[in-house]
Design goal:
- The chain is mostly helical.
- The protein has one domain: Orthogonal Bundle (Fic-like fold), CATH 1.10.3290.
- The protein is 65% helix and 0% strand.
- Helix 1 packs across helix 3 and helix 1 crosses helix 4.
- The longest helix is centred in the first third of the chain and has 18 residues.
Length: 96
């Protein structure tokens, strides 16, 4: 499956691209444990490589539940919840 190449300079397109990457990675579920941690590290690397800071995810219980819901949606090709979550994580990573 091919996706149009997004402009990674635009935060909105960048977050949408990361949501697709996370969804595809989570769909193949390559590891018995640690899939979310691994893909978060991969997307942090992509973030840093594009001149951004690593993403700051909400690690509270509510944040973890939100991530699980967004991941389930992304696996089913509904990337909007994951895009929102990543946008929030990118925003939270910015210095105040």
């Amino acid at each position: 499956m091919q996706y149009p190449a997004p402009s990674l300079k635009n935060d909105q397109d960048f977050c949408r691209a990361l949501a697709h990457i996370q969804g595809e990675f989570l769909a193949i579920h390559p590891f018995r444990e640690g899939n979310a941690r691994t893909i978060k590290l991969v997307t942090d690397l992509l973030s840093v490589q594009t001149g951004r800071l690593p993403l700051s995810y909400d690690d509270s219980d509510a944040g973890k539940k939100k991530y699980i819901g967004a991941a389930a949606s992304a696996i089913l090709k509904d990337f909007q919840p994951m895009t929102i979550l990543i946008t929030e994580a990118l925003s939270a990573s910015q210095p105040s």
